[in-house]
Every structure is written in C-alpha cells, then in structure tokens.
Amino acid sequence: MRIAVTGKSGQIVSALLERGRAAGHEVLALGRPELDLADPDSVVAALKASAPDVIVSAAAYTAVDKAEVEAGLAHAVNGAGAGAVASAAKSLGVPLVHVSTDYVFDGGLDRPYREDDATGPTGAYGASKLAGERAVLETYPENSAVLRVAWVYSPFGTNFVKTMLRLAQDREEVSVVADQWGNPTSALDIADGIAKVAAKLVESDDAALRGIFHMTSSGKASWADFANEIFAASATHDGPCARVKRIATADYPTPATRPANSRLNCNRIAEIHGVVLPDWRGAVKTVVARLHTASA
Q1: What is the pTM of this model?
Q2: Which terminal CB of the chain, N or C, has fewer other CB atoms within 10 Å?
Q3: In angstroms, what CA-CA distances link 172 with 8, 241, 244, 295?
Q4: Which pLDDT does position 77 carry in this prediction?
Q5: Cα–Cα distance, 195 to 27 (Å, whole number)
Q6: What residues contact residue 167 under an 8 Å CB cut-off, 6+ apart?
Q7: Are 242 and 174 a contacting pair, CB within 8 Å?
Q8: What Cα–Cα distance (Å) separates residue 42 from each residue in 12, 32, 48, 136, 166?
C-alpha cells in the first residue's frame, strides 16, 4: 500500500514512517515547501504527484497555547488545510484518514466521550481542529475516516514524556496537574492503528468503515499518574526520575483552557475496524526504553 502522509517531522508522521515501512507499506511524507497546508494549491499538487493508494492527513498546527494569539493561522492550517487535503483525495478517488483530537470537546462529561457526543472546544486550537473535521466530512464524506487521538507522546519530537525526563535531570520534585484525565497514547501505536484503518478503506467501500472514530490507548490517567509511570519506567534503566507533586489545574494556568476530561470511548473503532490499542502503561515503558537507549 502506497501511503501519502501530510507533514514531515510530526510525532505521528515520524511513527508512521517507521511502523508503516516496517509493515511493508510505502510511506511518503509530504511537507513544506512542496506541501503547505496554508496554501491549498500546493496541497493538491503535491498529493496528486505522489499518486497514493490512500492519504493520511496528519500535519497540523499544534501549538495549543500559541493558537490563542494565532487563531487565524491555526484555522488556515487545521481547517482550510484539512479541507484542501480532502479535496485532493476526492479528486484522486482515494481514501482519506484524517487525524483529529480530543480538544474538540469541552471536557465537561463525567465519562469517556463517544463519537456522537456534542462537541464544544474551549480554545482556538480545538476550534480549528473541529473546523478541519467538518471540512473533511463535508468535502469527502463518502471515503474519509476521522480518527480522534489524545495525549500523544513518542520517541520523536517534543512531548510530555521527553519534558518530564528532561525536568527530572536536575529536579528532585516536579509539579504535575492531577485533575485532568485522559488516555496517554503512543504515536507508535497510533501509526499501527492508522495503517489498519487505511488498509480497510482501500480494501472495501463499506460505508460503515467511514466517519468519525476515537482511537486512544486503553486505560486512563491524570497527567500526574502519567508522570509517575514515566519516572518508574526511567528508574528501571537508571535514568532520570523525580517525585511528583500533584497540583490542581488552577495552580498551573495556561493561555488555553485544557479539557478536564479528555477520555475517549474507543468501542466503535474496535467493533468496526478491529483496532484496539495497547494499554498505555506498557507503551510508556517501550518509549522510555527507546529514549534511554538513544541517549546512552
């Protein structure tokens, strides 16, 4: 399967390049300057030139706090840019897998969010990603799957795992929010899930395989729980670790409001696509071990 993925250096793109190729797929990463989500004409031209069997829309504006002062750019990239990718996929007649986020919800529910729950982003980033979902499903509903993921980390790029390990190098204690809940999810596992969904879309025109799906690791955690697991895994390799001081969201104000509840119900993708991502704790151990080996 020939997969064209938007972006060159993001966590999910990097993971898809590694895991997709390991599974025998040809993965082409397309990004700036030849593909710029803020320039729709470049998007269509680059994707057509790649002649893919399936397109994965993974590139995005992801600076959550900065988006509060760059809302126009965030919407241009995550909204209009996603629509341009969908237009290109439609013109090529190939399936599209679009990656979205838990930030499309306001976090007010006391249970994991289902795909049919009402959206209500609390910040510019979430609003821009919701605009992207709508652009994809309005442009190309007949052959698109939107995958909402959450709390992404990996051996690549900048993420929570790397930040915690860096802070622990010179701190005995790290303050971490304990009243926000979600599903920490490795980009490596996300890449495996994307590849499975993409293959199903290529193989079958079944409408049930299209639409919106939630795809995160099994198990829930607070950010403080996540940090504790990272340090426990690091300690097994004699790596950096620290005590976790559990704090409230109010003690760590940020420009953008984070959802208190980012948990996603993933039953639908399990039932329809047969995709069940591993428990987050084991995935954390895998990523921490890789980071330790890379730094040795």
Answers
A1: 0.96
A2: C
A3: 36, 8, 9, 20
A4: 93
A5: 10
A6: 174, 242
A7: yes
A8: 21, 9, 10, 17, 37
Query: Which whole number is the average pLDDT over 109-125?
Result: 97
Distance (Å, rounded) from C-alpha 182 to C-alpha 179?
10
| 197-204 own/partner pairs: CB under 8 Å, 24+ apart | 197/97, 197/145, 197/147, 197/269, 197/273, 197/275, 198/1, 198/3, 198/54, 198/56, 198/95, 198/97, 199/1, 200/273, 201/54, 201/95, 201/97, 201/143, 201/145, 202/1, 202/53, 202/54, 202/94, 202/95
Short-list 159, 223, 148, 227, CA closest to 190: 148
Distance CA 117, CA 247 (A): 29
The domain defined by 2-157+185-219+263-279 folds into Rossmann fold (3.40.50)
- What six digits make up the tokens of 58? 């993974």
Q: What is the mean pLDDT of residues 151-171?
A: 96
Mean predicted lDDT score pLDDT of the chain: 96
- Report the C-alpha gap between 167 and 165 in whole angstroms: 6
Q: Sheet harboring 211-214: ordered strands across?
A: 26-30, 2-6, 54-57, 96-101, 144-149, 211-214
Q: Which residues are catalytic?
A: 125
Q: At what angle do helices 223-235 and 280-295 cross, to 10 degrees?
A: 50
Of 243, 210, 271, give the one whose Cα is nearest residue 86. Answer: 210
Domain boundaries, the chain: 2-157+185-219+263-279
End-to-end CA distance of the chain: 35
